[in-house]
Each structure stands twice: as C-alpha cells, then as structure tokens.
Amino acid sequence: MQSIQVGQLKSDFSNILQLVQQEGETFIVEYGKNHKKVAMIIPYDAALDQSQERVFGLYKNRGHVKFNDDFEMSTEELLGL
Prior knowledge:
The chain is α+β, with helices and mostly antiparallel strands. Helices cover 36% and strands 19% of the residues. Strand 2 and strand 3 (36-41) form a beta hairpin. It is elongated.
C-alpha cells in the first residue's frame, strides 16, 4: 500500500490505474500540506470482496438493533424535515 499526493495522482493517473489493475496495488490518496488521508484506490475485485461483510470496528459485537414489523418512518421524519 502506497501513499500518493493529489498532485502526483493527477499527473500519473494512467500509470497508477495500470498498477492497480495489473499488479493489484493499493494507493492512499493524501491531500494538502498536512498529508490528510482522504481516499483509497483499490482494485475493483477487492472492493467487491470487501463489500460482502461490514465490520463495526469499535462497536463490533457490542449492540444490536431490532425493528418491530409495524415500524414505519417517512423520508421527512428520517431527515428531520
């Protein structure tokens, strides 16, 4: 896994995509003077594999949610409008 600045990503985009596709490389995209990590470029197949299971991280196995069968909420209620 390599880190890359946005400027370098812009100038080498085709080469980076080629590395991702052919070599399976992963890139972390950094932005600004503080090198804030803002995105990741990963192979498409790897993204499909990861999307099967989501990890809760800190709260894994520490809670649950159950909705009654008659639960209803409008889009306006959900968004607080």
